[in-house]
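User: Sequence in, structure out. Go.
Assistant: Echoing your sequence, followed by the structure tokens.
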Amino acid sequence: MGIFFAFYWDTNPQAQFSIFAIFLVISLVGITAIEGISFSEGATLVSGYGDTGEEYRRQSRMHFLAITVVMLIVWLMNWGFYSYLAIYMVLLVFFTFSAINHLYTGLKEKFVMNTLLRPIGTIFLWVITIYFLLPALK
């Protein structure tokens, strides 16, 4: 669908790529996320990964590595502030969702050090981010 709309809505190559990228990321990554959250146990079996979940954890670690590699590429290519900000926001939003998950787990089961540290660390990251970001956006 992204390819169709990229050609249909615009002729500018940057606009076409933007349309294509937005559609692809939202549809592919978004659907994968919903599948993983909503149908995690069934999805591991259907995908052939078995019931241990280790393959999903490995995939998650690869995702973190991919974000790191992209940040290094963006930095080495000197793509600038908004590129750094976009990649950083992926990290910050992930940590926010993770903090909510840790807090939920702590409330549902029991609090351990990790269920407390992730939300506290995420709040700290948001405070520092706002401190640096507000002046940078003016």
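User: And one key feature?
Assistant: The chain has a mean pLDDT of 84.
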